[in-house]
Amino acid sequence: MLRLAQSLNGKTQSRNWGRLFSTSRFVSAQTLTEKIVQKYAVGIAPGKEVRSGDYVSIRPSHCMSHDNSWPVALKFKGLGASKVADNRQVVCTLDHDVQNKSDKNLEKYRNIENFAKEQGVDFYPAGRGIGHQILVEEGYAFPYNLTVASDSHSNTYGGVGCLGTPIVRTDAASIWATGMTWWQIPPVARVELKGQLQPGVTGKDVIVALCGVFNNDEVLNHAIEFVGEGVDKLSVDERLTIANMTTEWGALSGLFPVDQVLIDWYEDRLKNYIKKDNHPRISRASIDNVKNNVITADGDAKFAKYLTLDLSTLSPYVSGPNSVKVATPLSELSSQDIKINKAYLVSCTNSRLSDIVAAAKVIKGRKVKEGVEFYVAAASSIVQKDAEQIGAWNDLLEAGAKPLPAGCGPCIGLGTGLLKDGEVGISATNRNFKGRMGSRDALAYLASPEVVAASAVLGKIGFPEEMDGKTPQAAQGIKSTISDPSEVGETTDGGAAGVEATGSTATVSILPGFPESIQGELVLCDADNINTDAIYPGKYTYQDDVPREKMAEVCMENYDSDFGSKTKAGDIIVSGFNFGTGSSREQAATAILARDIKLVIAGSFGNIFSRNSINNALLTLEIPALIKLLRERFAEQKQSELTIRTGLFAQWDVKTATVTVRDGSTTGPVLLTSKVGELGESMQEIIVKGGLEGWVRSKIAN
């Protein structure tokens, strides 16, 4: 989250936009994340080293966009830009709505392809595969690179030692136009994996267990660095799966080390896929360069958190229903005889060759249970071709699986095979938010490819061993630890757009056009982890012409269908922790703005939602004390209402960086006063200009 006022040597400094991108402090040791950012940071003073908390201007090695490339292109043109700053930096892939053959969608796809040709940008058409898989296969995501994408699962690239992190559409347009965007280096969590996975336990079980064991936002908005002996025993495909779902864990990146396992994987790719040593990204020279220039975290580098997980204590785990925060041993769910209607082996999480082979091994010679639909889609055309050559793809089809084109599809609620009212699905995807894969009245579980395939045959959530009448071993307790070093400074409750309150009594200068105060009635949406699908339904995400009135109408409907009738212009939304978690859709912010709501207060925010909010001029404040007050005051009402008009009013005095909450009216008795961070002039200017897009446009015009 953007912190506009920071404490440097005990003094508060409000940074202007130019300094925002270049300020850093000298430190004696760096994490691997900080070292990679150092390589791609622009404007860093000689002798200075970046670290967590610093704002930097970054020039990423590559920037990928998918079906949202055309909206990004329109933003790019709207900025007054006509030529991509570095056409070797930009990659366009078509992967999300590839089953949609409507004239409207095909026209959008043609527009993207034509734009890519005009700009000389690398382009991968529908059917080639999921963008994240392509970036790994083609080497855009490469060890020690900083590669971004306008999609929340850019974390995937950490599986190959590449610092991957998501951006939003406006950021992508800025990169197209200038080659750069901004990033605040997040706190870094060190996750040590001990031991070795037992037979039948997979990388998917690792990340499902991590999401379930550490499910109280321990790594929210952190960068994660995986270390330990357990890493050596994980395949690259398993690392990619784990890194991919660090997004669901709440992290901004999930970085694995570059080791011999990864080097051997690249050697295999060079031997079997790159037939000539002239690939622009994967070549003998590039692999040797990585081998000869190993980068690791310094031994005395400081981490914000230290977590451990003993892999030997894991068993197969299942996530859900309808939440990645709930992880249950498969042995418990299997005994409950949970019947399923649909099973899915699709998405950027678990549709690589090893996943397809694992599922095919389970299902070969068997048949999908009558009444169950089992959908399969390879992560890329290369993966599907390899699976066909070794017979694994045919084994799935012979068992009754229904093939889909290489792409996203049902994972994001698009195309064939979506969950209907009352149905239960089990999927090898990354998200099981309510309503994401179809009906919000369906139940969705997440599991490994092996468990998904076995469940398709059994007709219920179960083990592969059950198909042979065996009783699987019950799960043992997971061994894990977490520590929060005392070196990590404490902050106060308040924050403006993620601003840390500094305790300064100085007044904030107010730019012309920016209000000195913002006030309104508080409307409580009392839930943690309200995701972007709940805020703006996925079925509208890739409809690029949804009018503002419609956006306002459907805002929060997957959270509460009564939200629209209970809110009005000028209200202030108040919610719990990790508000706006999930996908990168910027409409989660713009839909709230469409209801003429200018301010959201929460205990904390998903980082990608914060980026979208800042870039689209939606103001946010973090005030955990207010959430506590409201939850105590409206505990009984919460039992019957999801959206509660509180009758309490908040006033944010921007000049003094103070929020006052009163009972009954803006002049009623004071219930809470909270100091929040200062909203500096640089951020005010972005808001006054209507967001980052308007700000950049004004700078280009000048």
UniProtKB/TrEMBL annotation:
Domain of life the protein comes from: Eukaryota
Known cofactor(s): [4Fe-4S] cluster
EC number(s) stated in the UniProt entry for this protein: 4.2.1.36
Subcellular location field: Mitochondrion
Gene Ontology CC annotation, any one: mitochondrial matrix
CDD domains: Homoaconitase, Homoaconitase_Swivel
Pfam families given in the database record: Aconitase, Aconitase_C
GO molecular function, one term: metal ion binding
UniProt domain Aconitase/3-isopropylmalate dehydratase large subunit alpha/beta/alpha: residue ranges: 35-459
Catalytic activity: (2R,3S)-homoisocitrate = cis-homoaconitate + H2O
SUPFAM superfamilies: Aconitase iron-sulfur domain, LeuD/IlvD-like
NCBIfam families: h_aconitase
Chain's role: Catalyzes the reversible hydration of cis-homoaconitate to (2R,3S)-homoisocitrate, a step in the alpha-aminoadipate pathway for lysine biosynthesis.
PANTHER family recorded: HOMOACONITASE, MITOCHONDRIAL, HOMOACONITASE, MITOCHONDRIAL-RELATED
Protein name: Homoaconitase, mitochondrial
UniProt gene name: LYS4
